[in-house]
Specification:
The chain is mainly alpha-helical. The chain has three domains: 201 residues, Growth Hormone, Chain: A (Up-down Bundle), CATH 1.20.1250.20; 59 residues; 219 residues, MFS general substrate transporter like domains (Growth Hormone, Chain: A). Helix content is 76%, strand content 4%. Helix 6 packs antiparallel against helix 14 and helix 16 packs antiparallel against helix 17. It is globular, with a radius of gyration of 23 Å. One of its GO terms (cellular component) is plasma membrane. One of its GO terms (molecular function) is transmembrane transporter activity. It comes from Cryobacterium luteum. InterPro entries: EmrB-like, MFS, MFS_dom, MFS_trans_sf.
Length: 513
């Protein structure tokens, strides 16, 4: 008999057709699998907590290490870029040698890099440790989804991924609050170091549990390894060098006064990206395994979707970079007060994410349109508040409504957006397309922070002594930076229309429209 296909939790699950009604039974999942899921999500929690927890520590780092403005941008952008560049090769290495040991190695390196971040004595040491931390995060995060696929039967996989989605939302939302509490409790001078060291006990316990609980044979069958596990190392070098060459002048240019080398480096970065594209086409023609399959971009909607991922993440990840520096360095608030500003956004994100799957099934692409519209409204509202409010009178109550609205929209967008972008390509290309989208999200975060940091610090001029002068200068710069973030959101809103109207079967198989 032919199976009846029914969508469940984002995956298509088959159930046999019988002449009498079947009593649904819960899939049998060993307790060990749920225990292993806790270990995997502990790593995911750390990696994503570190994308936001550091924001509230930036002013303390600036004071403690006498760090430059460019360093503050590198702390966020370097982590995001390194994280993104590691995703695809790490996934392919895991396919070959087993995802358990890739997860263990990445988690161990992440834990050691967290220790090194907290021990840093100057700008350079902190930036290097932070980049290594990002690389390590990009190593072990792909193993989380891969091992879930291997451990859980299809009928239980949806629940496992739903739990993972909740962890992603909570860890990102908790970051600024946890960071603020730590700095408030231990002081600005050394509290920022504990912001990194909070990973140490979690990492050590997760490493021990990994050895005993994760399945050792978490690798693809030999036949699949041949086609998927070959890594395009030259392609990885070209795209890494190109993105770094583009990022360095964006971060350092304003601080250095835009000397000639910044423009030459931008040009070199553009050439390296073009060379990467040419190399990928060459590898594909030789029936090799390109890092980014060029034929994916033969789908115009996929190209638009990838640009959407980059631009959207550039918009929303830069919000709290701007607010954290304004709140502490400009308005004189504590790190905890800065973290508390993010609570409306966090609540909105959790509420939006909890409804996004249901609304995506009902509304199709419109859920993304609503999400980005709300984010755009929220950012424009924040910009207007900063523009029209006297700097010394600005409080978290002014930002509560727009941040809640922006958070609600972000929650609606982030969870389902990958499915809609991947739906623009054939089902057989879904794995490669998902990897590209994940990388572009991280690259977007890095580029967004680089651009916003350049605008913020490039426009910062304190014209006199006293708290009032600081408040005026930092609010002016934050207003300009928020205008750029809002501009990114507007572009993302237009790009949503490149995606299909609906994902058929709640998966990346086909699209309508």
């Amino acid at each position: 008999m032919k199976p009846s296909l029914k969508p469940s939790g984002g995956f298509v699950v088959g159930s046999p057709v019988t002449s009498t009604p079947a009593t649904p039974t819960a899939p049998l999942v060993p307790r060990r699998a749920w225990q292993a899921l806790i270990v995997l999500l502990s790593g995911m929690f750390m990696a994503l907590l570190d994308t936001t927890i550091v924001n509230v520590a930036l002013p303390s780092i600036r004071t403690s290490l006498d760090a430059s403005e460019a360093t503050l941008s590198w702390i966020i952008s370097g982590y995001a870029l390194a994280f993104g560049l590691a995703l695809i090769p790490a996934g392919r290495v895991g396919d070959r040698v087993g995802h358990k040991w890739v997860f263990f190695t990445g988690l161990a390196l992440f834990t050691m890099a967290s220790l090194a971040c907290g021990l840093a004595q100057n700008d350079l040491q902190l930036i290097v440790a932070r980049v290594v931390q990002g690389l390590a995060g990009g190593m072990f995060v792909p193993a989380v989804t891969a091992v879930i696929q291997l451990m859980f039967p299809p009928a239980a996989r949806g629940k496992a991924f739903a739990i993972m989605g909740s962890v992603i939302g909570v860890s990102t939302a908790l970051g600024p609050i946890v960071g603020g509490l730590i700095i408030e409790a231990f002081g600005a001078a050394d509290g920022w170091r504990l912001v990194f060291w909070v990973n140490l006990p979690i990492g050590i316990l997760a490493l021990i549990a990994t050895v005993f609980l994760l399945p050792a044979g978490a690798a693809l069958p030999r036949k699949a390894q041949i086609s998927r596990a070959n890594i395009d190392w030259l392609g990885l070098v070209l795209i890494s060098a190109g993105l770094v060459a583009l990022l360095v002048p964006l971060i350092e240019g304003e601080d250095q006064g835009w000397p000639l080398w910044t423009f030459l480096t931008l040009a070199a970065g553009a050439l390296l990206v073009v060379a990467f594209g040419a190399w990928e086409v060459s590898v594909a023609k030789r029936d090799g395994s390109p890092l980014v399959p060029p034929h994916l971009f033969s789908h115009p909607a996929f190209t638009g979707g990838v640009i959407l991922a980059l631009v959207y993440f550039a918009a929303f990840t830069s919000i709290f970079f701007t607010i954290s520096i304004l709140w502490q360095a400009g308005l004189g608030h504590s790190a905890l007060e800065s973290g508390l500003v993010s609570i409306p956004f966090a609540i909105g994100t959790i509420l939006g994410a909890s409804q996004s799957d249901r609304l995506a099934k009902q509304l199709g692409r419109s859920v993304l349109l609503v999400g980005v519209t709300l984010v755009t409204i929220g950012l424009i509202w924040i910009w207007l508040v900063m523009l029209l409010t006297t700097p010394g009178d600005l409080t978290n109550w002014h930002l509560l409504p727009p941040l809640f609205i922006a958070g609600l929209g972000s929650g609606l967008f982030i969870a389902p957006n990958v499915s809609f972008i991947v739906a623009t390509v054939d089902r057989s290309e879904a794995g490669g397309a998902s990897g590209v989208v994940g990388v572009m999200q991280r690259v977007g975060s890095a580029v967004g922070i680089a651009v916003i940091g350049s605008v913020f610090f490039g426009s910062l001029t304190v014209t006199g002594p006293g708290a009032d002068a600081l408040a005026v200068a930092f609010t002016h710069s934050a207003t300009l930076a928020m205008a750029v973030s809002a501009g990114f959101a507007v572009i993302a809103l237009v790009l949503v229309f490149a995606l299909p109207k609906r994902v058929v079967g709640n998966g990346p198989a086909a699209a309508d429209g």
